[in-house]
Amino acid sequence: MKLDRFDRQLLNLVQEDAGQTADQLAEQVALSPSAIQRRLRRMREQGVIVRQAAVVDPRQVGKPTFFIVALQVERERPELLAQLRRWLAGEEQVQQVFYVTGEADFVLVVTTPDTESYDALMIRMVGENPNIKRFTTNVALSLVKRGLTIPVALDDEE
């Protein structure tokens, strides 16, 4: 899908706050509210906007613990990687999964209520995925910044 400057402006704005109304967005983009609604609908239908989500303050919901996990696999056979990817994608506590270069094969962002819950998750992960060679864990001491915003250039540089 070809994105013009208006689409790009809208993407930046809704990534910051998807709860804005078409009228509020129209005040920031030189388009009518109906044109904004059409563009947003088209970008959802075309898969540019994948979903909308609420960002929750962890302190307001029990102060979960965040873990950054570097995961190494034994063998990088496609079927074994696909099985592990499916397992990770199905776990609610695994927030993000990156397939990476370097010493680790995957980097995960995991959140659990406490270290005991994290330990249970990792025991289950290793038990259900025998291709895992090892993992290392970093515990987040504080949350400095969290987000999924992808900066979208306003001009047509691709």
Automatic annotation (TrEMBL):
<dbReference type="Pfam" id="PF13412">
    <property type="entry name" value="HTH_24"/>
</dbReference>
<dbReference type="InterPro" id="IPR036390">
    <property type="entry name" value="WH_DNA-bd_sf"/>
</dbReference>
<keyword id="KW-0804">Transcription</keyword>
<keyword id="KW-0805">Transcription regulation</keyword>
<dbReference type="GO" id="GO:0043200">
    <property type="term" value="P:response to amino acid"/>
</dbReference>
<dbReference type="GO" id="GO:0043565">
    <property type="term" value="F:sequence-specific DNA binding"/>
</dbReference>
<dbReference type="InterPro" id="IPR019885">
    <property type="entry name" value="Tscrpt_reg_HTH_AsnC-type_CS"/>
</dbReference>
<dbReference type="GO" id="GO:0006355">
    <property type="term" value="P:regulation of DNA-templated transcription"/>
</dbReference>
<dbReference type="InterPro" id="IPR036388">
    <property type="entry name" value="WH-like_DNA-bd_sf"/>
</dbReference>
<keyword id="KW-0238">DNA-binding</keyword>
<protein>
    <submittedName>
        <fullName>AsnC family protein</fullName>
    </submittedName>
</protein>
<dbReference type="Pfam" id="PF01037">
    <property type="entry name" value="AsnC_trans_reg"/>
</dbReference>
<feature type="domain" description="HTH asnC-type">
    <location>
        <begin position="3"/>
        <end position="64"/>
    </location>
</feature>
<dbReference type="InterPro" id="IPR000485">
    <property type="entry name" value="AsnC-type_HTH_dom"/>
</dbReference>
<dbReference type="GO" id="GO:0005829">
    <property type="term" value="C:cytosol"/>
</dbReference>
<dbReference type="InterPro" id="IPR019887">
    <property type="entry name" value="Tscrpt_reg_AsnC/Lrp_C"/>
</dbReference>
<dbReference type="InterPro" id="IPR011991">
    <property type="entry name" value="ArsR-like_HTH"/>
</dbReference>
<dbReference type="InterPro" id="IPR011008">
    <property type="entry name" value="Dimeric_a/b-barrel"/>
</dbReference>
<dbReference type="InterPro" id="IPR019888">
    <property type="entry name" value="Tscrpt_reg_AsnC-like"/>
</dbReference>
